[in-house]
Design goal:
With 96 residues, this protein is mainly α. Helix content is 54%, strand content 0%. It is elongated. The relative contact order is 0.10. The model has no long low-confidence stretch (mean pLDDT 80).
Amino acid sequence: MPEPIRMSRRTWVVAWAVLCATGIAATVALNASSPQGPQPEKPVSEECAEYIADIETQLAEAKQDGKDDGVLTFSRRKAGSDDCSDEIRDHFGDDR
């Protein structure tokens, strides 16, 4: 059986440092090439737009009544309606 090639500790450290530097350089290059501006808004269905408007109305009423504790509850939606959970998260995502 052939004897494995032995590498000194210094060689391993240099190889590790080169890999780390390459990874950091690749990360910097990828971050620099990604768009920095706001993402364009996705089109929202009419039903989801009405639902979001209703939520905003409820929030505004709660704020006027002095009940703005940051909690808003919802009942189940009717069967066959659009699933608007992603649109709601996108719309109110800045408030987190």
